[in-house]
UniProtKB/TrEMBL annotation:
Belongs to the nitroreductase family. SUPFAM superfamilies: FMN-dependent nitroreductase-like. Pfam families: Nitroreductase. Residues 25-80, 81-164 form the Nitroreductase domain. InterPro entries: Nitroreductase, Nitroreductase-like. Keywords: Oxidoreductase. Gene3D superfamilies: NADH Oxidase (3.40.109.10). This is Nitroreductase family protein.
Amino acid sequence: MQEELTNVVKAHRKAEYPVSSLFLNRWSPRSFADRKVRDEDLYAVLEAACWAPSASNEQPWRFIVAKSDEDLKRFDQFIAPGNQLWTRRAPVLVLFVSATLNQKGQANRFHAFDTGAAWANFALQANQLGLVTHAMGGFDKEMARKLLHIPDEFEVQALVAIGYQGEKDALPEQLQARELPNGRKPVSERMFEGTMNV
């Protein structure tokens, strides 16, 4: 059954071509409600991420999860101040990292690409469960590596906040105007036939 677009998405997004509402309804709010994420739901989201396509079935993605007060405080140390304005209300933070070597110890050229696919599955499954996600690059990767004891053969990719959507007015005033789904450029500006003529 085709799911309907949410009201806020209807007001701000329109696809050029027919696609499932699953893709349009997913966006990246910054406001999180004061509500815990059930372990069963978090694990379901991680399970969906693990079913992403993977070159040679290497499954290079790894997820470092912070949900206890102690772990959330540790993560807070490497998050950029501008993002701390809203990440401190998120009940769960997940750091995506990827194995840069394959099972034979050789370079895996597709580790970042595959981990990006895992992130997409993660975000879409979260949305299906009534959760929201917001991925960010505004954090200190080297500090994250040090504080979380991430080995050199793993690359730090992105940090994701996950929880239930909160009210816009719970955000600092400077972020409230941005608390809307954004649009996308048309396919025609992103597609090339045959060769990439720019």
